[in-house]
Amino acid sequence: MSHPIYDTFQPDGFSSVNGYLFVEKPQELIDFYKKAFYAEELSRTVAEDTGIIRNCILKIGHSCIMLGQATGDFSGMSTSFYLYVNDVDALFENVVSHGAQVVFPPEEMDYGDRQGGVMDIAGNYWWISKRLTENQYEN
Hints:
Layout: E1 20-23, H1 26-36, E2 40-46, E3 53-60, E4 63-69, E5 80-84, H2 88-97, E6 101-108, E7 113-119, E8 125-131
Parallel strand pairs: 1-4, 5-8
Antiparallel strand pairs: 2-3, 3-4, 6-7, 7-8
């Protein structure tokens, strides 16, 4: 059961915790996500004086992530995402065909997921997974 502090409005595609990436080349990553993960751009905020992308909201599947230009204390950051899909192999091949590096090829894991790992063009890791068991958190 969730704590009442989390009972608030969240825009479509958002949940209580959401990824926010700060990257050196945001437009390149936006283009990559659109091609590789079939991302849909929902909104964008650009600094009028510099043209820097301050915030871009992308919807991937049923979830949203945000990204913007890395500056100052927010430079050189990377993260990882756990992405559930219905065809691990098909998305894995699409992502790799658009420039992601293979971390490990799709395989069945002992914790009940079929999963492959890639690193995107900005150095973020993506664990592309499909749950193979009905158990919630263990196999």
